[in-house]
Amino acid sequence: MSQPLISVVVIGRNEGQRLAACLASIKAINNPGGEVELIYVDSNSHDGSPELAKQLGATVLCVKPERPSAAIGRNAGWRAATAPFVLFLDGDTLLHPEFLQHALTAMADESIAVVWGHRRETYPEHSLYNRVLDLDWIYPPGITEFCGGDALMRRDVLVAVDGFSEDLIAGEEPELCQRIRATGKFILHIDQPMTRHDLAMTTFKAYWKRALRAGHAYAEVSQRMKNTAFPLWLQDSKRNAIHTAVLITMAIGAIALVWLLGDWLPLLGLLLAYSFLCLRSAYKARWKCRQPLTLLLYGVHSHCQQLPIAFGQLGYWYKRLRNQRQALIEYK
After folding, report:
1. Could you tell me which residues are beta bridge partners of residue 60?
2. Global pTM?
3. Homologous superfamily of 6-202 in CATH?
């Protein structure tokens, strides 16, 4: 058999019918110019996902680490792959039929090691959380600092940097990208649709845990990269700490004034100040969306998420000082 052109590595855990839809979308792509190898890496599912993937024609690998992570699954996948290009996908995504053709064209430039496109939510109308977080996926095209979980990568570059860091439970793709950039290669975001994602978020608890996970990633990755040529998220983690401190100080100050003055007017001032911050964030994000209500909700999200992100950072430092490992933070 001839060597495949692309190995598609899908990772998942209890994705059910989302996984079936993901694998079907891969089989439905436009011909990228060569054969496609399909590998599914399962992280200890109990819903029959491995059997389902095998029935749909995927080579199935099962990993059962003590502390599961996306990095472990992706490493197992690309190391079993045989193609020169590896496309990583999450099991809750749908691949756009034309993405690989555009990505391979971009890969004609040997300096490009990673190509990614636009990821959007499949069902933004299903909840306010889906609707708002859909905008979090939107980035301007061009050379970028990092990519997300869906991306096409050169296998020889993965070999050169020894793949993903398996001790990370979040932020493993951005951290990998910094090590790739240190080799002189580039990360390219192309202006093409790549995947549709099913966030399936319907509760504030899930929203909180997702932001908590992001905070852990900010702290852990920024500490790991702070003395390198690409200190990713170092400034972001500091900005989050300052941002959260300002929001909390404003609230405490307003409550203190209410108690001292015996007047509710300071709370009105606090509400107006918070509203101004949210409106300013919504206005700055107007390039992402033309729907005023969605932008307003996104502005609220931009500040609301700061508190759980800060707690995620604090959780990282608490665990680190106690020499403990953070368990996987799952929000689904």
Report:
1. 40
2. 0.92
3. Spore Coat Polysaccharide Biosynthesis Protein SpsA; Chain A (3.90.550.10)
